[in-house]
Amino acid sequence: MDFQLSENQKMFQTMVREFATSIIKPLAAKIDEDGECPQEILKKMAELGLFGITISEEYGGSGGDYLSMALAAEEICLVSASVGTIFLASLSLACYPIYKFGSEEQKRKYVVPLAKGEKLACFALTEPGAGSDAGALETTATLQGDNYILNGAKIFITNGLESEIAVVFATVDKTLGHRGITAFIVDKGMPGFTVGKKERKLGIRGSSTTELVFDNCRVPISNQLGEKGRGLRIALEAIDSSRVTVAAQAVGIAQAAFDAALEYAKTRQQFGQPIINFQAIQWMLADMATQIDAARLLTYRAAWLKDQNLPFVKEASMAKLFAAETARMVTNSALQIHGGYGYCKDYPVERYLRDAKITEIYEGTSEMQRMTIARSLISGT
């Protein structure tokens, strides 16, 4: 059993860390405050090849592994979970199903510009009445000649404002239940496709979260992604894979909060000495460090299993569940260590706490992760 990263992975991790620290970190607070990410940051990420880490060179990527993706997610989210969310939603969630299930023509047309970072994509599954119950979606796709006519609305869509490409899930026949759900690639600008309300959020404020509206939107039949009626399978496989990177995101946020708390505890004076001398603070830091380490190992294991083409769904859910709850605990403890200062925006820990919460919700709530894990235990898979 080898717990060491390869030399290539170490060099890649160092490169991303240096980029994130020098380019993103100085702007992280402003990104959160303004509610948007400067295009220059995304352009530089594209130049480093980050938007195509797991995509083969044939389609504009660098042919890296999923563990490298997790490393990048951790390092970027350590300085800005908002920037990390934009990056992960486009590559890990939206580009993945086109790369995995798309035709050769679709890969050339869509995956190449996404992997090169020339365009962003979003993943449009969630609806007002279909969140955890993805099979209950109401958006319809009706075949008319050489086009599908899409009608319905999606909510809570990450990158909805900036994306030029959307992977959209709709039902071709409601009587078939989840067997009627089909995936489509929809270009921004197709008649009948508009971006609706932009949400005002607690955290990850630098990434847009919007409503998408489809009003008799005409989508060419050539933009059907995968087989008709297999859309839910495509969606769930993308989400299973994305859970690994959400776990890495949570680890990055938790690590940032821990680092800030440790440094603050060394310098903050109370009762004539640094507060790190007090056992209560030491034990808090010890618990924080231990849980972060465990979360990181769970995340790396899930990524490694995926890279080896081994079953990883249970392990991805375990990693996502534990890392998300660790991020919530660690960021709360970090703010507590900072005391009143932690509650103020002059210090970053309040942002870490706000950003951490979403990791317990998207890509399946913590409750849904427990259901997935329990089902795997019962079935023995």
Structure description:
The chain has helices at 7-24, 28-34, 39-47, 66-79, 81-101, 104-115, 231-267, 279-307, 313-338, 349-357, 366-379; strands at residues 121-124, 140-144, 147-158, 165-171, 181-187, 193-198, 209-220, 224-225, 269-270, 273-274. The chain has 381 residues and is of the alpha+beta class. A hairpin with a 2-residue loop joins strand 9 and strand 10 (273-274). The longest helix is centred in the middle third of the chain and has 37 residues, at 231-267. The model has no long low-confidence stretch (mean pLDDT 96).
Backbone structural class: alpha+beta
Shape: globular
**Strands side by side in the biggest sheet:** 1-4-5-8
Number of helices: 11
- Overall average pLDDT: 96
What is the helical fraction, as a range of percent? 40-55%
Radius of gyration: 21 Å
Describe the biggest sheet?
4 strands, mixed
Distance between the termini: 22 Å
Instruction: Estimate the strand proportion.
Output: 15-25%
Low-pLDDT runs: none
Q: Got a strand count?
A: 10
Which sequence of SSEs, written as H and E, runs from N to C? HHHHHHEEEEEEEEHEEHHHH
Record keyword descriptors for this entry:
four-stranded antiparallel sheet, alpha+beta, 381 residues, four-stranded mixed sheet
How do the helices and strands line up, and which of them pair or pack?
Elements: H1 7-24, H2 28-34, H3 39-47, H4 66-79, H5 81-101, H6 104-115, E1 121-124, E2 140-144, E3 147-158, E4 165-171, E5 181-187, E6 193-198, E7 209-220, E8 224-225, H7 231-267, E9 269-270, E10 273-274, H8 279-307, H9 313-338, H10 349-357, H11 366-379
Parallel strand pairs: 1-4
Antiparallel strand pairs: 2-3, 3-7, 4-5, 5-8, 6-7, 9-10
Helix pairs in contact: 1-4, 4-5, 4-7, 5-6, 5-7, 7-8, 7-9, 7-10, 8-9, 9-10, 9-11
